[in-house]
Amino acid sequence: MEQKYGAVIILSMCVVVLLIGMMKKKAEMILNFFVRMVVGLVCVYSLNSFLQANGVAVAVGINPLSAITLGSLGTGGFALLYGIAFCQFL
């Protein structure tokens, strides 16, 4: 009887360790998303200010859709947003 309880305890501890590992990975992904989003929005604001100071009429709006794009795609999303803006400028 005690052997069964020991096996159940060992199995449950393994499951707990696996769950902690999965939660840590998800937390890391969420943190990575928010860091990319914040850095991307700061870069968009900076580049918008730089372009406006130099007389270029191209600006990317800072809104939830651009924030999601920047958070999920990172640098590629930044290039995508400005690529679309420059294509509309032409």
In short:
With 90 residues, the protein is mostly helical. The protein has three helices and no strands. Helix content is 86%, strand content 0%.
Largest sheet: none
Shape from CA axes? Answer: rod-shaped
Instruction: Tell me the number of helical segments per DSSP (H or I, 4 or more residues long).
Output: 3
Low-confidence stretches: none
Q: What is the chain-wise order of helices and strands? A: HHH
Helix content: over 70%
Beta content comes to: under 5%
Instruction: Name the structural class.
Output: mainly alpha
C-alpha termini separation: 78 Å
Mean pLDDT: 85
Rg calculated over all Cα atoms: 23 Å
Quick one: how many beta strands? 0
Task: Describe the overall structure.
This protein has a domain at 28-89. Helix content is 86%, strand content 0%. Helix 1 (2-53) crosses helix 2 (64-73) and helix 2 crosses helix 3 (75-89). It contains three helices and no strands. The model has no long low-confidence stretch (mean pLDDT 85). It is mainly alpha-helical and 90 residues long. The protein has helices at residues 2-53, 64-73, 75-89.
